[in-house]
Amino acid sequence: MFLPGSQMVHFDFASGLTEHRSQSENIQQTKSFKEFLVKLKRVIGGLRKDSLFCSLRVPNQYQTAKEEIDLVILTGRGIFCIDVKSWKGEVSVQRQNWHVHIKEQEEHFTNTSITQMPDPVQAIKNKTANLWSRVVRSGVAVHQSLFIPWVVFLSPDCILDEDLQKTKEVVTHGGLDSFFHSFKEGYLGWLSDAFTPSLLSGHLSYRQIASIREVLKRTGTWDTVSLHGGGQLKGDYRGCQHLALSREETDVLEFSHVRTLSAGSLWVLLGYSPKV
């Protein structure tokens, strides 16, 4: 974490993220996701902490790149792969892309902007399939139907057209409570699984759950730099020469300056980097 007055330098080596946001969008996305996660944990209750995995980087089909799944929940009923969106505006589909229409009312006119986004439903389906492939390659026998994709739209100001609302993988703001309580109801069923053989229930056995949990633990996440003010920088900093460390032995790094903000900015311009 950066302390007040810190400056970030020499991190232009980070790469791999496919969706870029402004600082305000990044902060809003982070805040919305944290609130979503807090409410989900509160409603479910009793779910093991090591059954929730955030920001997993899953290799694609060709092992040439990694893509992020916002949240993976491991239960006896299945492995739920969830992408969370904080979009605002009217959302429609044009061919294979989604269009987000945002209207801004000015004093004498209305300004409309249209942002073209890749299909998030197809994206989470692909990432879910890739995660299943990774689990199977790791030696765990599990049916693909137990890997379940979802896309959750958090904002009440995100209006999806009727066809998108009917998509089974989509959860809108109005359906959040039902979505949360479906996990609560499912949790009661997961408890009953303790007394029902997996061959009869069709659910994951304890051995499968333990094996999948180990695979998910070994699945990497993005390197995340938390900035003073709430922003975050995510990327793969493995190639950064200023971070030569053992990742197996390191969880958190703290960057700090002992100088004032103005003096620190001057040192950055002269090429000096923060001490770690």
UniProtKB/TrEMBL annotation:
Residues 49-149 form the NERD domain. This is NERD domain-containing protein. Pfam families: NERD (PF08378). InterPro entries: NERD.
